Every structure is written in C-alpha cells, then in structure tokens.
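Field: sequence (string)
Field: structure_tokens (string)

Example rows 1 and 2, in order.
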Amino acid sequence: MERPAPNSQGQPIGSNGPCRTGPIGLRAWRANSAADLLRPLRTVSVHGCTVPGGPGRKGMVFRAHEAHAVGMTTPGERFATALAAKDEAGVRAVTTPDLDFRAMTPNRFWEAHSHDDLLEVLFANWLEPSDEVVALLSTSAGEVSARQHVTYRLHLRNADGDSLMEQQMYYDVVDGRISWARVMCSGFVRV
C-alpha cells in the first residue's frame, strides 16, 4: 500500500499532526453535474490541511454537529458552525454585543449593530425556520494581514428543493469574539 506524501513537517497528509500543505482539496475538485455537488468529496481542506476521504470515510462532509470534532477553532469557523446549527447562543457567544456587521446577498444589503439585530438577519431572513441545514459542507480560514477571513458552504433544503449557499466573511476580533464583519453571500443556488 502506498503511503501518503509527507507535508512540510514530514507527516502524512491527513494525519492527526499539524500540516500546512495548502488547501488543495476543495479548490481542485470540479463538479461534472449539479448532482455531483451533493456527492461526498474525495478530500476536504481544514486549516490548510488536506484530509483524504472516500466512500464511507468520516470527515468528507462536515455535519453541523461534527464541526468541532475536526478542530474548528477560529471565531469565523465557530460562527459558521453556529449558523449551520441555527444556534442563537453560539452566534451570541462568538460575536461582541456591539458588533458592526454588514452583508450583501444577491438582492439586498444588510446591517446589524447588536445581537438581536444579527439574529434577526440570520434566522428570520437568511435561514428561515422552514430552511433545513443539511450539512456544513466546508470551511476555509485564513488572514489578510491583521484581518481574518472564513469561507463556508452550506447544503440547504426547503420546500423548493436542495440548494447550496456559500459565504465569504472578513472580520476583526476583540477578546476572541467577532467585533466587525463584512459578508458576501452567493444566495441559495439550486442543485
């Protein structure tokens, strides 16, 4: 059996140790059809590590309740996990009470300057009660100088069928919590 190539620290890609080989998993994968978007990925990228996957392998698609098990530690990743779980307490815990939040979706601009405003945007407008979050498909975190960045993709289901939604968030952190955020959203893209 062929061993995986080592990363820059000499550990196999996908091992439990640190790896910084670059996010090649999701970026290298292309769908041949809309149905391919919902099939398990062969690899995923977590904190710049490529984690091998395959039929029956855990970790190919991150369910909202499994997200912490794979080491999601940045405030942006915790925000994505709380959003996917529709967890109001989790959103409050990862954001400051006086958050400066602005976002753009395909049809509207959004602003929030308090927890209550933010929760209304997220759970009364973006993800309505009838929208089921099937899975948090991927996250990718990074930095742009002192500003942090997270990208996350959700598999959603409602009466209209299945959709994907991806968001890019640039944010600042104060005392471990998001204090300033700008989000760009793909909207619900039917699959």
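Row 2 begins here:
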Amino acid sequence: MSETRANAHRLLQLLASLRERTIALKMRRLAQLGLSESHVRTLHILASHGPITMGELARLLFLKPPSVTVIVRRLTERGLVERRPHPNDQRAALLFPTDQGRQVLETIYQDMLRETEHFLAKLSPTEQEALLEFLEQLVKATQITTPSMPPAIKGTERSNHDKTQRA
C-alpha cells in the first residue's frame, strides 16, 4: 500500500471518528428539541436559500417529494416553517422558515459552537491554527462546484479581519 493510500485510509478513519463524536452530541440536542437531522437540514436550506418551492427543496435535500412533504408538514405543525402562496403559480406554495425556525437553527449553531470551542481549547493556539489551515486546504482540494449543494454552515468562511490578522 502506498504512503498516500495509507494516509487516505488513516484520514477516513479519523474523520469518521470525529464525525461520530460530533454527531452524537448534535443528535442528543436534536432529541431534546424533538427534531431530526432532516428537519435541521430543511430549516438550514430554507434559511439559506430564501423562499423556495417543495420541488426545489426536494432537489436541494436529494430526497423524493413525498418525503419532503412529510418533513415540511411536521415542521409546519411545530411552527418552524410557513407555507405562503406562490405569487406566479397558483398551484405552488413557497416555503419560509419562521422566526421560531430561525431561532432553533441559531440555538443548534450556538450549541455546536460551544462544543467546538471546548474541543479546540485542548489545543494550543499554534495547533489550532495548523488544524484550521489544514482543513481549509482539504476543503479547497475537495471542493465540488455543484449548484445543488447546500451552502456551508454560517461562520465557516474567514472574515477579512481574520485573514489580515494572520498575515
């Protein structure tokens, strides 16, 4: 096995382990809120893309329309998503996150931010910077430019201030 292949295998194992740990924390919080990962993905897409139709949402979620209908119905019943008539198509409705839906997203994000801060605190500032530099390079190396890909979670882009601080 080549060194690159062995490193790729090791990286996959490390990413899987990290994912399992972070997902477990996130899933506990979602269970407390009575939500699923699909609910949160739906809210995130609606908050990121603005008002969209069920068909557009299904495409962005990579799900079939009947599955999206069930998700949206549950979110609507909970007051997290609102349907409004489409101004140009009487057959369609536009989906919006409600203020409560946006607040749920913010709560989840703040929880994840606290957990990530806790993990990073175990590293020195130099180690944190090296980790972030490596991850930025990895993201750039694996970036796929597909219009149907949901945008990254807010806060993943470095501000210009951060970039100038580093220089």
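free_text_note (row 2): The chain has seven helices and two strands.
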